[in-house]
């Protein structure tokens, strides 16, 4: 693991999974992805999830973020049991508490960088003025202050991913979930985007849970967990 100190004044887990299970059925064939998986992510903590292709890393991230429903066990986000919430309440909690960054930026092509980052703030019920101020501040923080009015097609790959980072932080989430967020970038740009995420983690105490195949990136986080045979195990520094 890295040498950074454990975040101080933790107020309990931002995300907690208990005895999580997920089974998929295709005809008569049942595939069990997880069985009794437990996980806690504390406020301000950074966690890498690694594992072989097909181990279920993205599935786990979707379950933690309330984008998929487990077949067993429970996920708690900010102390609330996701299965007890209606679809609407789950969506509102997700928009308020969690940010998402994917391998592909998923920016809406018809809107500018500024408008894309404003959207989560507007969906939370804040005014256009507040959303614009927040979005501009975040885009300046990711060094895109000069690209506010550019559409995704007018941005480079690294710029689009930095805009996606800004959008993920739009509502000051407790935790950001990243699914190979630097996977489509060249090494130099990937390093820049990753360092940016760590800087924002330190500045805002936003927890990070990143799925990655990059062990070098994983070593920079507080904990590295390997998804193996349906469960999670914490890796030592020598194993990463």
From TrEMBL:
Domain called ABC transporter: residue spans: 15-240
Domain of life: Bacteria
Subcellular location: Cell inner membrane
Sorted UniProt keywords: ATP-binding, Cell inner membrane, Cell membrane, Membrane, Nucleotide-binding, Translocase, Transport
GO terms for MF: ATP binding; ATP hydrolysis activity; transmembrane transporter activity
EC number: 7.6.2.-
InterPro entries recorded: AAA+_ATPase, ABC_transporter-like_ATP-bd, ABC_transporter-like_CS, ABC_transpr_LolD-like, LolD_lipo_ATP-bd, MacB-like_ATP-bd, P-loop_NTPase
Record-level GO cellular component terms: plasma membrane
Primary location recorded for the protein, binned into one broad class: membrane
Known partners and oligomeric status: The complex is composed of two ATP-binding proteins (LolD) and two transmembrane proteins (LolC and LolE).
Similarity comment: family membership: Belongs to the ABC transporter superfamily. Lipoprotein translocase (TC 3.A.1.125) family.
Protein task: Part of the ABC transporter complex LolCDE involved in the translocation of mature outer membrane-directed lipoproteins, from the inner membrane to the periplasmic chaperone, LolA. Responsible for the formation of the LolA-lipoprotein complex in an ATP-dependent manner.
Protein name, entry field: Lipoprotein-releasing system ATP-binding protein LolD
Protein's organism: Xylella fastidiosa subsp. sandyi Ann-1
